[in-house]
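Let's practice the habit of predicting before peeking. Look at the sequence and jot down your guess about where helices and strands might fall. Then scroll down.
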Amino acid sequence: MPKTHNPKPRWKIRFAALIKLMLVTIMAIVIAIGILLGYLYHKSLPVADNDLNSRLLDNQGGIIATFSASGRSYEPVQLKQISPLLVQATLAVEDRKFYEHIGFDLKGMVRAILVNLKEMDRAQGASTLTQQLARNLYLSHAKTWTRKIKEAMYTAQLEMKYSKDEILQMYLNGIYYGHGAYGIEAASQMYFGKSASELDLAESAMLAGIPKGPTYYSPYNHLDHAKKRQKIVLSTMVETGNITQQDADRAAAEELHFKPQGEHQSSMSAPFFRDYVKNLLISQLGISEEQLDHGGLNIYTTLDLHAQAAAEEAVTQGMSPQSDLEAALVSIDPRTGYVKAMVGGKNYKTNQFNHVLAKTRQPGSSFKPIMYLTALSSRTMTGLTTFNSEPTLFHYDNNRKTYQPSNFGGKYLGEINMQEAIAASDNIYAVNTLLKVGAGNVITMANKLGIVSPLQPVPSLALGTSPISPFEMASAFAVVSNGGKRMPPVAVLKITDAAGEVLYQAPESSGDQVVDPAAAYVLTHLMESVFQSGGTGSRVSTLIKRPVAGKTGTTDTDAWMVGYTPELATAVWVGYDKGRKILTLDGHRAAPIFAQFTEKALENTPPKIFPIPDGVITAYVDQETGKLATDDCPDKRLEVFVAGTEPTEYCAIHGGRQNSPEGNDNSGKRSWWSSFKRWLTK
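Done guessing? Here is the structure:
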């Protein structure tokens, strides 16, 4: 009988098929991984945050700051410029096997998966430094599977394209250490006032522990938490063999000397101006945040770094660092509208709100010149127009309402003219003026000068009760300084992309003549009296050694000094954020800040008098009668007028030979003195 072939057991056949399937699957996976790795190797990484950052340039082409999502304010340092102790501390606490793995800690990942399964949540991670770097450079911190997959891809690419030292260097230059400090150099300077290369063991362990929780482990916020974290870092360094237990104990016991919070100034210049420009770019000029962060743009601005440094110094010296009192300063070139300096607050690191743009502050008496300009422009009043400064109950709205202002300190001067009212900041004269020229006309004038904040047509408008931003006030006074010609405020001149192509060019403007030049000059002449004897700005007159005009302003919560020279129009504001009342001493801070800034900013510019335009008449006036002075008038003064508003009658009290108004003598020809002054100012 022939032998029969026993078929293989079914289970063996199935087993063999399973083995083949597994081998094919493994081979397919290996091939797929190989293809993926090859693809990732040849595929370019996304533009990192520290690549192609856009640059903010001053009016000389110097770099003010860079725009980046990280907000980095220090240039990256080389790995060899970082203390080895800091490197060891960081690796010990963040990624012990950094130089051994391929970007992923497989054992740690398995451990994390088991914990997460037990907790039924993504409660634990196992991110290596390379994974953290990939996330910081290219991704958000959202805990999604899509982000995890992208993170793994970018991690693999980083490991393939960079050496371990390069990855570690990028990590240490980009990690966040709290309080706006990105990168180890910024952190070392902020916390200890020294370079990252100079950090000792105790300082290194302290800084290495912060990135785990920059707020929670900040020594400024929670010193006890920071010290506990420092000890954990030191213990891990002992475990990894970097230091001995004795070294760790000594470091833990070392008293660390932190720089006072807020004392360290970021290397980024003009931070408030930077934020202002960024908002302009995004909201008005069509530049996206993505372009700013990664587009390599060059943003050419009007900022004058010399003037900016003078502004920052004046604010710092004029304010107390211990007080909550805030300050703001903005300065504009009246001839061009260029923003030259901007300080939005006392300390950017502790308060990023830009008070220069705040439209909630009452300008007080600094608003009065706008009202007087309305009166001069309409020829309703002159500098000699008088009102009686005394307690007055004003009736308005067809006598249906009343308003009774008072002068500061209850001081009333009797019959005074406009120049005296400006110098003394008389409130009674101001309200009389508003009611004479009309609140609606004053609002129209303010709008012409560039004020867009809503103004209420009530008698108290004369005293500056309608809120206006310091930026608007500086812009408005710039028009007066520029002879009534308004140059639109400009901060950005040009934007180019990474290839040098022009994306934006500020339109050229010859300005708009919104105010009669003669009226603007007469107001300037009157406002110069603020810095003369008896004026509210006289206490800083010795600090300013050049022609200057301006006006102080004080309310219960705000103090102002707004003024100008032919080259700069500047607004200074002082007050509290929460509307807290200012003290008398606080109210006197604005004028010295203005004076110090103006002199320092223009220290290389020769003093220049305000140019006298056509349509201005000068005449000697008898102080007692307000009429044209004669040779025998004992108290006469040279006054200026808008042509056609000068006095025509001569003083009859003192007798004597009559003089002719300068610039408008009996023959209709200008006097030699007037002609000489015009030539001098051209």
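How did you do? The two ends are 134 Å apart (CA to CA).
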